[in-house]
Specification:
Largest interface: A-C, 74 and 90 residues
Strand order of the largest sheet of chain B: 1-2-3
Oligomer: heterotrimer
CATH class of the largest domain in chain C: Mainly Alpha
Chains: A mainly alpha, B mainly alpha, C mainly alpha
CATH topology of the largest domain in chain C: Four Helix Bundle (Hemerythrin (Met), subunit A)
Order of helices and strands of chain C: HHHHHHHHH
Largest sheet of chain B: 3 strands, mixed
Shape of chain C: elongated
Radius of gyration of chain C: 30 Å
Order of helices and strands of chain B: EHHEEHHHHHHHHHHHHHHHHHHHHHHH
Number of strands of chain B: 3
Number of helices of chain C: 9
Largest sheet of chain C: none
Chain lengths: ~100, ~625, ~270
């Protein structure tokens, strides 16, 4: 058991989140996947803070959480307004900006 | 050359050019408002220029006067001062240009009376006079070149004056293009002068031409000759001049007989110090003159178009002048004397031809003339005097000036001298032949007019200039050669006459020329005067006649040597341009366009596709980082 | 500083228990069809991560993770899910050709590269521990507060601006401006209703003893489903076939009193199932 385990776990979680972004079509689920990726990064930050013996990593994770909260609020509002106009929360339906 | 600054009246000699130029400007810019009095203004400015030229010439007193005007271009080592050189040689030309020009302006008032664009015609004529005066008055080669191009432009505009006729437009284009060939030669000559001597003034060039290597001088001489050939319709650039007869007849008289086409002779005479240094170039001038002399004379014998006959005659007579200037110092004066007398009688002949055409509803086919002597007495008499002067009838002007050239040719003393003299005498016979044929076809015999043609004498505004020129044709030779020798007048330019021994006695030459002339005229009478003239040219003729009708295949040669290869080259270039250059550019554009539209397909609008490519990029970056750190 | 803090067995146990749970949560989130299930799976993972934070000497972050993330943010997600409702996008059938295969391949590649890289680079990573900065009287919260209000003060203040902006932005985006008077009055609504083929009210959903969901349709007297009673946006549930009451004769037991599914129970004496 070492800190490497945490890091590898974080990497795997991050990858699952990324793949989820790619394969899910519901915008809200996509958003959840992004949250998962942010969380895995936070885990990495906390782990490195412990490894280095300074608190800066934790501070950074804290800021990530704040920014994530703000992002979720705005992002969900956007999803809602899109849903209102298009009656759909699918990311594939918002595809007018193309060739 | 020792020039003195201008003083008194001569300081105002720039007005010679400014007057007709102002006339042209007023007529061209004034528009329709000047229609009613435009021809009078045009004529008035030229008459005023003639009077001024006369006064200047009297004030000249054998000096060479330099008139400084302004700095034309001063860049680095090239310093071109616009200036005029008024010397006896220029004076002779000024008087010829303004004198004959004024007469032809007067004549044109009548000739162009019914043309809706008469004002523009006079504007172009004024422009021509101004450019021609600049050409002969310039004191450096650059200003001469400006005038040279100016007369080329005016000539183009006037040949194409009736541009609604395709033949006129084509002829104008032909003249312009063939002149360009010559002009390139002149321009190159000026470049060489500047490169080698650093100056383009007559004084500077002629003063230092001696220091140049022989080859360079020869090159300059040959390039100048190319320019002269283009402008004067000399071999190998003679083909445009007969076609230029598509212009109105006064134009043919003024530009394509009396003045502009003699600019080549002027150029060579003016550049005498250069040609004195290079016997090679002079020999080429001689050869060009002799060849053109014969070509013009032979081609003139077989033409049915009255103006074409006169045009080939002009080509031939200018060949005489080239022959003379090619002879060197001995021939300059003879060439200029012939130039002046030719200016009189050929202008008179053209005006007479214009009068005849005027009477015959603008027909130029001599086979449909005949019997006009009784209907148009003034025209007949003035034309006849010009004719006699041209063929060298004793004691008329052509007799003096042409004999002088033939004498000068014999005076060369060597075998070539005899050859050239013989050629000149033979051409004199041919001249007599074709001119007699012209006279007989036009004025003699029975009328062969087309229906509805009622010949009448032209108005006096046309006949008076013809009479004046006829008097000039009769007297000019005597005046210039015997009474007031041109030799002495031009002595400041060409040096004192040497009074050399004649190889063949002048009397012998005169008798010989007269005999040949009578022989030629008699032959013409045998061919034309004795029998009925067919209304259309006979088809079954000897190869010689066929060749002569087609001007010794000059156009054919030009077409096959230059036009066709040029067209082929153009087609090849167009092909290369279309397929090669355009193909490459279009292909590149099509490739880029195709690939971009194909790449555009990647822009599906699906966010997830974009995210996938981002992940792909992240994988590549991670792999690269790992490879770098591990490596 | 003590560079050689050894990770205890307890922590290892926690990791090996919660690590798979976190992974399972993540996979479940990605794989479940229902978005609400996804949210719950994610909550699962986040809770596990919160425990990891606490274990890794970051109790404040662990608390924040649980309170703010799983508590607040995920509830927000659920609210929006309820507002938006179920959707065809919940389908897990892939519509972009090759997207899923490419995503999985790239994901495996990425995980392999990053995991291998991290494992290789950090196998000798010393565990310094945070005892030096937050040991004794100086607790974790105090140490973090000291840093936030000194070194990271500017970023912290800017964060407040970010939050305000986000709140205002969300309000602007979600707000619907409605002109006063554009809302139809009751008179207009009722007039419109009487102009249709069906002036009477729609039937309510079926309400039964074992199902009072709006998803349960009402039944017509002949036993058919009343389609007018379907709620919009919700798939109708399987009709909850309540056993019909039978009658005193059949009431053998409390269970039997609830009735039978048999279509014609009255013919059978003595009841069937005991």
């Amino acid at each position: 058991m070492s800190l490497t385990h945490y890091l590898v776990l974080a990497a795997i979680l991050f990858t699952i989140g990324a793949v989820g972004v790619l394969v899910r079509r519901n915008a809200i689920v996509v958003f959840m996947c992004i949250e998962l990726m942010l969380n895995s990064v936070n885990l990495t930050l906390v782990t490195f803070a412990r490894a280095s013996g300074t608190l800066d990593g934790q501070i950074m994770a804290f800021f990530v959480m704040v920014v994530a909260a703000a992002e979720v609020v705005v992002g969900l509002a956007i999803i809602m307004s899109i849903y209102r106009t298009r009656r759909s929360a699918s990311v594939d339906d918002a595809n007018l900006l193309k060739y | 050359m020792d020039t003195v600054p201008a003083d008194g009246l001569l300081a105002a000699s720039w007005l010679l050019i400014a007057l007709p130029l102002a006339g042209a400007a007023v007529l061209l810019l004034g528009g329709r408002r000047t229609d009613r009095w435009g021809h009078l203004l045009g004529t008035g400015t030229v008459v005023a220029a003639f009077v001024l030229g006369l006064l200047c010439t009297f004030a000249l007193d054998g000096r060479q006067v330099d008139v400084d005007l302004f700095t034309f271009a001063a860049t680095g080592s090239l310093d071109v001062q616009a200036g005029l050189l008024y010397d006896p040689l220029s004076a002779v030309f000024v008087l010829l240009i303004t004198g004959v020009g004024a007469l032809i302006h007067v004549y044109s008032i009548g000739y162009m009376a019914h043309d809706p664009r008469r004002r523009r015609f006079f504007a172009y004529l004024n422009l021509f006079i101004a450019a021609m005066l600049l050409l002969v008055l310039a004191d450096n080669f650059v200003a001469l070149y400006v005038g040279w191009e100016g007369v080329g432009l005016a000539s183009y505009l006037l040949i194409a004056f009736w541009h609604e006729r395709p033949s006129a437009a084509t002829a104008a284009k032909k003249a312009f293009i063939m002149n360009r060939v010559g002009d390139v030669g002149l321009a190159l000559a000026i470049f060489v002068m500047f490169a080698q001597l650093g100056t383009v003034t007559f004084e500077g060039v002629f003063g230092s031409v001696g220091v140049l290597a022989g080859g360079t001088v020869t090159a300059i001489g040959l390039l100048l000759l190319l320019g002269a050939c283009g402008k004067s319709g000399q071999f190998p650039l003679q083909a445009w001049l007969p076609d230029a007869m598509e212009g109105p007849t006064p134009v043919s008289a003024l530009i394509h007989a009396a003045t502009m086409v003699t600019a080549g002779v002027y150029l060579i005479a003016r550049s005498a110090p250069i040609y004195d240094q290079t016997p090679t170039a002079r020999a080429v001038v001689l050869a060009v003159g002799a060849v053109t002399l014969m070509i013009g004379a032979i081609a003139g014998c077989a033409q049915d178009d009255i103006k074409k006959v006169l045009a080939y005659s002009t080509v031939s007579q200018i060949g005489y002048m080239f022959l003379a200037v090619g002879l060197g110092p001995a021939g300059y004066v003879a060439a200029l004397a012939h130039l002046l007398t030719h200016g009189f009688f050929k202008a008179g002949l053209f005006l007479g031809a214009g009068s005849v055409m005027h009477a015959m509803n603008d027909s130029v086919d001599m086979r449909r003339y005949g019997g006009l002597a009784s209907k148009m007495k003034v025209t007949f008499v003035t034309f006849g005097l010009g004719y006699l002067a041209l063929i060298g009838f004793p004691f008329l002007s052509g007799f003096y000036s042409k004999d002088a050239i033939i004498e000068a040719a014999f005076d060369r003393g060597d075998g070539w001298g005899y050859v050239l003299g013989a050629v000149a005498i033979l051409a004199a016979g041919l001249t007599a032949f074709y001119m007699t044929r012209l006279m007989l076809l036009t004025f003699g015999g029975r009328p062969r007019w087309e229906d509805g043609v009622h010949p009448h004498e032209s108005p006096s505004v046309m006949t008076v200039p013809m009479i004046v020129l006829a008097v000039g044709s009769v007297l000019a030779g005597f005046l210039l050669v015997v009474a007031f020798p041109l030799e002495e007048w031009l002595a400041p330019v060409f040096g004192e006459p040497e009074g050399a021994e004649h190889v063949v006695a002048p009397l012998v030459v005169s008798v010989l020329v007269t005999l040949v002339m009578v022989l030629g005229a008699g032959t013409a009478w045998l061919f034309v005067g004795r029998r009925e003239v067919p209304l259309t040219a006979p088809v079954r003729v000897s190869p010689v006649v066929r060749a002569a009708r087609r001007a010794l295949y000059a156009d054919t040669v030009n077409e096959s040597l230059f036009m066709r290869p040029g067209q082929w080259l153009t087609r090849a270039l167009v092909f290369v341009d279309n397929r090669g250059v355009d193909g490459a550019v279009n292909g590149l554009a099509a490739t880029l366009g195709g690939s971009s539209s194909r790449l555009g397909r990647a822009q599906t609008g699906f966010v997830r596709s974009y995210a996938l490519s981002m992940l792909g990029g992240a994988v590549v970056v991670a792999g690269a980082l790992l490879a770098v750190t591990a490596g | 500083m003590n560079p050689d803090v050894v990770i205890g067995t307890g922590e290892a146990v926690v990791f090996w228990v919660l690590g798979p749970i976190a992974l399972a949560g993540a996979l479940g989130m990605v794989l479940s069809r229902n978005a609400v299930h996804s949210a719950l799976w994610l909550v699962n993972t986040m809770l596990a991560l919160g425990v990891f934070y606490v274990v890794q000497e970051a109790p404040f972050l662990g608390a924040v993770q649980i309170i703010v993330y799983t508590g607040a943010i995920m509830i927000l997600f659920l609210f929006v899910l309820m507002l938006v409702g179920r959707d065809s996008s919940d389908s897990v059938v892939e519509t972009l050709r090759g997207q899923r295969v490419a995503a999985i391949l790239l994901g495996i590649g990425f995980a392999g590269l990053v995991g291998a890289g991290v494992a290789r680079a950090t196998q000798d990573l010393p565990v310094t521990g945070l005892a030096a900065v937050q040991g004794g009287e100086n607790s974790n919260i105090e140490a973090i507060a000291a840093l936030i209000f000194t070194r990271y003060l500017l970023a912290f203040e800017v964060t407040s601006a970010l939050l305000i902006t986000a709140a205002v932005g969300a309000m602007v985006l979600a707000h619907i401006e409605r002109e006063p008077g554009t809302r139809p009055t009751q008179k207009e609504l009722s007039r419109a209703r009487f102009l249709t083929d069906r002036p009477q009210t729609l039937p309510g959903p079926g309400v039964y003893a074992r199902a009072n969901s709006v998803a349960a349709p009402a039944l017509l007297p002949d036993g058919r489903v009343a389609e007018d009673s379907f709620a919009t946006g919700i798939d109708p549930q399987e009709v909850d076939q309540m056993p019909r009451p039978t009658g005193r004769a059949e009431l053998g037991s409390p269970d039997a009193a609830l009735g039978t599914l048999d279509p014609a129970p009255s013919d059978i004496p003595g009841g069937r199932d005991r």
